[in-house]
Amino acid sequence: MIISALKSSVDTDSRSPIHIDTISTLLNLGADVFFEENIGIGINVSDKIFEQSGLKKSSREECLKKGDLIITNQPLGDDELKLIKPNSTILGMINPFSNQALIESCSNLKINLVSMEFIPRITRAQKMDVLSSQANLAGYVAVIESAKHLSTALPMMMTAAGTLKPAKVFVIGVGVAGLQAIATAKRLGARVEAFDTRDVVEEQVNSLGAKFVKIDLGETGETDQGYAKELTEEQITKQKELQSKVCERSDIVITTAQLFGRPAPLLVDNKTIDRMMPGSVIFDMAVESGGNVEGSEVDKVVERNGVKIIGISNLASKVSNHASLALSNNYNNWISDFFDKENLSISFDFDDEIISSSVLVHNGEIKNERFKK
Predict the structure, then answer these.
(1) Which residues pair with 47 in a beta bridge?
(2) Which residues touch 356 (CB under 8 Å, ≥6 apart)?
(3) 121 is an active site residue
(4) Is the pLDDT of residue 261 over 90?
(5) Would you list the DSSP string of 100-164?
(6) Which of 216, 235, 264, 271 falls between 20 and 30 A from 367, CA-CA?
(7) pLDDT digits (tens, 9 = 90+) for 230-245
(8) DSSP secondary-structure letter at 17?
(9) d(CA 48, CA 227)
(10) Which CATH number, 3.40.50.300, 3.40.50.720, 3.40.50.1370, 3.30.70.260, labels domain 2-118+320-363?
């Protein structure tokens, strides 16, 4: 069996789907591992280092043609799919809700397609959860990048020249990214407040030393996968009105609210931004899925009345080495759990919850009802 690892095809993504510290997991399976040349350039690992570890360097085209299992950080195009052998498997992050054509092409070409975004949030699958591993690092990066654009320091400082007050950080959305943003801001000495539509996260916020902002929105909750449920228009309006008061007194506002498979809700509008202090910063972590902040733009810093609005794509890529380490472990754990060592192949047991959730196409059949026409 040949496992092929592809280099990121997006300029803003420096991550690698394989990492030198985790590659032994794949080699120990007994498979041959090919990699696209320069795959490790974003994590400062040369092709020579991978080759010395027992991997085989190849072109992207050859990786696609030879691979029985192809690991990728981005969805592949039609021209690339046509190079892949029937009954081969693509494993990776494919952004399925925006790539219906990819799913249909894989079905027509009899290419198996595994979406790591659809790993179920169950205890056994935590080691494969790419969304959580990357969101955790993204939350860290959001604070660091916000601090770069702030004209004050984050911690309180007692100096001979006077006392410098700590910066005030407000985190909207307390999922994996939000919790890491809270923890990072607290470590840097900021005064942190946070809000989430799920009251159950209040204890987690308080345990990190932050203050949970209570906004009564009526009936809210979370899905069986642990995501916040979508709010009604009335609830979103009420949330924006009440949280705008917290935004006004904050130096940094970090928004993390995203809805799986749907556009991100708009939570901070121009009316709120205009109330904020000149020099303050808003970081929109949902900018790639539509944005939580009015006027935010992908990979740009937009300024409105002295307030900087930051939108950065592929946030985890800002710490590409650790992101690649986590990502490669996620991929390796999926492969290891479903690898048949006797036949040197992937075992697709659809009675397994992880397989039934993450495999979108198998043997030419679209398995997930959401993507069937």
Answers:
(1) none
(2) 350, 367
(3) yes
(4) no
(5) HHHHHHHHHHT-EEEEGGG---SGGGGGG-HHHHHHHHHHHHHHHHHHHH-SS-SS-EEETTEEE
(6) 264
(7) 667 777 777 777 889 9
(8) S
(9) 42
(10) 3.40.50.720
- Spell out a b/e string for 215-244, using b for 16 or more CB atoms within 10 Å of the CB, else e: bebeebeeeeeebbeebeeebbebbbeebb
Q: Do domains 2-118+320-363 and 132-313 have the same CATH topology?
A: yes
Q: Spot the catalytic one: 24, 52, 126, 347.
A: 126
Quickly name the fold that domain 132-313 has: Rossmann fold (3.40.50)
**Predicted structure pTM score:** 0.92
Catalytic annotation present for 345 = no
Domain ranges of the chain: 2-118+320-363, 132-313
What would the pLDDT profile of 137-166 be if each residue is shown by its tens digit? 999 999 999 999 999 999 999 999 999 999
Catalytic one of 227, 337, 345, 352? 227
